[in-house]
Amino acid sequence: MPGRRVAEVLAGPPSVVGEPARGAVAGSTVPRRDAGMAAQILAPDYQRILSVLESEAGREGMRCQQLAVALGLEVVPAKVEGLRSKARRLVERGWARQVRPGVFTALAGPAG
Q1: Whole-number Å distance between alpha carbons of 54 and 75
Q2: pTM here?
């Protein structure tokens, strides 16, 4: 009986039912940063953005056009806007900061 099977699964320990897999997956969401959380849990695109922002060039802050160049991307509106969206998401979730409108940098210390 299908209803009985569902009830058995739902009766199992909560850690088994619906627990998401951990790790960096392309296109995955950006988790809120907690103390001790390493950047390696982020998707590869976000890790690359953080590494550039943590570099010497990114310490004073970078505009998304500069970020695109540093990442080896074409400086076209679609790429720049995609980076802007990702950089804002990193700021919202505590991985980076916006020092001025449109200018992003890493937090004081490396993200891991």
Answers
A1: 21
A2: 0.70
With beta carbons less than 8 A apart as the criterion, state whether 97 and 33 touch: no
**Burial class of residue 85 (count of CB atoms within 10 Å of its CB; 0-12, 13-18, 19+):** exposed
Q: Is 12 left (phi over 0), alpha (psi -120 to 50) or beta?
A: beta
Q: Position 2: which residue type?
A: P
Judged by average pLDDT, the poorest of 28-32, 38-42, 62-66 is 28-32
DSSP code per residue over 11-80: HS-TTTSSPPPPS--TTPPPPPP-TT--GGGS-HHHHHHHHHHHSGGGTT-EEHHHHHHHTT---SHHHH
Give pLDDT tens digits for 68-103. 999 999 999 999 999 999 999 999 999 999 999 999
The 10s digit of each residue's pLDDT in 48-61 is: 999 999 998 888 89
Contact predicate 73/79, CB 8 Å = yes
Distance between CA atoms of residues 24 and 40, nearest Å: 7
